[in-house]
Amino acid sequence: MATWEKFAALFGDFYNIFVALTAHSMFTVSCLSFAWSSSVLPKLLESQDSPLQKPITANESDLIGAIFYIGAAIGPLCFISVVNKLGRKKVLAIISLIPPIAYGILIFAKSVTLYIVCRTFLGIYVGAAFSIQPVYLAEVLAMEERAFLMSFVTLFSFIGVFTAFTVGHFIPVVHFNGLIAVLSTIVLILVTFGFPDSPYYVIQHENNRKMMVLLKKLRTRRVNVNEEFEEIQNRAACETEDSWLQIFCTKDNIKALISATIPLLLQSSCGVIFLMNYNQLIFMQTSITISSHYCSIIVVSLTFSTTFLAPILLKRKKITPGTLLMCCLLGVGVCNIIMSLYFFYGRHISYLSWLPLMVLVCSVLIYNCGLDPIPWMILGNSYPVSISAVGTAVSISIFELSVFPTMFLFHKVNMSYLFLFSSICCALGIVYVKFVVGPSEELIFEKITRNFKF
Fold first, then answer.
1. In which domain, by residue range, is 109 found?
2. 223 pLDDT above the threshold of 60
3. This model's pTM is above 0.85
């Protein structure tokens, strides 16, 4: 008996819930790594509570924060062909080795070089996890429970970010790295021994009998397994094992790449991502009287309050996805202009000290209403089945790579220019959504909005 079958027998009818929540825990580790820089870099820039022998420079800080996204851009492309050969479950187990090793090294690291190397590999892990985990869950979970169980990803991601901003500040860097190492080790063990292979992998590399056995164990409450068996057979026949260059072979594939990737680029260039990475460092450059780390906690805590607003609005058809996206771009763009003007003219004006906290809270809340979820929804519905794995990996790689310049230039460019650049990108995004996405937005989201149950 395989180890995953023992887990299935242990959890019974709740086994799918176990698989879904454990898979989402990978996103908790990913988002901990994503937001790690906001809590740790301020400590590394100072001698107090730094495990390094001396404070790092501003350039080293930018490199440690930005190199993560180079790794994240490489990650999805590294595993395109490997996924087809080994299966998504085995690849998830392999990449889950990276966080325990990386954070284990960081516990004892005394040099900037080790921090840079570990952050690069953690980026590879996050990029690969983002492109493989959602597809694995979609293949393993039954249709009737898929939307509900996969929706928990937002909660688990938020837990990771919130933990980084709260726990990461109040405990030493070494203990924080150790905490993530222990958590990621637990996730590694559960993924390796508790996850089954994807039904799609089994039907392609094993035989129909094993596929049927797997489905019966995964679908304990499903009445007709034969129906899903035929559906998986038909879909598996459409999948290809071509390289990522396949995405550029036809005009239709290129159109799909553009339509899937540009919304992600709007998300990466709107300014909120570098705000979440360097939240505390941004507040340290303002004249606000509240401590910078408490400002960071306030901003992150309030982001969760608007998480479910976008799907509710889309389901009830109170607003179209394109219109919601334009409203979010407009709101975030205005916030960026205000912040740009503040760093230009108002940083030393005492009665404006409250402005950064209020504006950045508004920016993150508006972003969360639509600019966060909608681009990923578009990504999931842009590519045909035959190139979905390749296309998704390429789009995510481009998205992650686009974050690098802003992160790397954080200490090298006046803060006002960074916010001004983000506001210009928001304005260009409004034009794009209005004249390109607008006519087809209902078709793009018809399938998505049907799946939300409120």
1. 1-197
2. no
3. no
